[in-house]
């Protein structure tokens, strides 16, 4: 039973890519968004959504790719690089303190 104004597509066929490509549940939608953020075969996902839902959904792809892929992933890499740099400086300070103690 669908609500008024909606079209139910359940039973009209399987989801594409052996059922892996869908927005039916949070898990599958998260996997699709992760594919967009990592830009792993995202063109296929874009074409499937474009054909089934129309061109207005292109805005979703633009937001996810620019904010998710370019901004958030680079932010995570920057945090990892800064943490590594801090650990390296701390190790150098400890090594210098050990050398000073041995003198």
UniProtKB/TrEMBL annotation:
<keyword id="KW-0813">Transport</keyword>
<protein>
    <submittedName>
        <fullName>Voltage-sensitive sodium channel</fullName>
    </submittedName>
</protein>
<feature type="domain" description="Ion transport">
    <location>
        <begin position="13"/>
        <end position="91"/>
    </location>
</feature>
<keyword id="KW-0812">Transmembrane</keyword>
<dbReference type="Pfam" id="PF00520">
    <property type="entry name" value="Ion_trans"/>
</dbReference>
<keyword id="KW-0407">Ion channel</keyword>
<dbReference type="InterPro" id="IPR043203">
    <property type="entry name" value="VGCC_Ca_Na"/>
</dbReference>
<keyword id="KW-1133">Transmembrane helix</keyword>
<keyword id="KW-0472">Membrane</keyword>
<dbReference type="GO" id="GO:0086010">
    <property type="term" value="P:membrane depolarization during action potential"/>
</dbReference>
<keyword id="KW-0406">Ion transport</keyword>
<dbReference type="GO" id="GO:0019228">
    <property type="term" value="P:neuronal action potential"/>
</dbReference>
<dbReference type="GO" id="GO:0005248">
    <property type="term" value="F:voltage-gated sodium channel activity"/>
</dbReference>
<feature type="transmembrane region" description="Helical">
    <location>
        <begin position="58"/>
        <end position="80"/>
    </location>
</feature>
<dbReference type="InterPro" id="IPR005821">
    <property type="entry name" value="Ion_trans_dom"/>
</dbReference>
<dbReference type="GO" id="GO:0001518">
    <property type="term" value="C:voltage-gated sodium channel complex"/>
</dbReference>
């Amino acid at each position: 039973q669908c609500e008024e104004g909606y079209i139910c597509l359940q039973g009209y066929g399987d989801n594409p890519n052996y059922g892996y490509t869908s927005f039916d549940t949070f898990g599958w939608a998260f996997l699709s968004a992760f594919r967009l953020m990592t830009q792993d075969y995202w063109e296929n996902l874009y074409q499937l959504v474009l054909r089934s839902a129309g061109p207005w959904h292109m805005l979703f792809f633009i937001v996810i790719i620019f904010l998710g892929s370019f901004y958030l992933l680079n932010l995570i890499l920057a945090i990892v690089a800064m943490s590594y740099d801090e650990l390296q400086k701390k190790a150098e300070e400890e090594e210098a303190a050990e050398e000073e103690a041995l003198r």
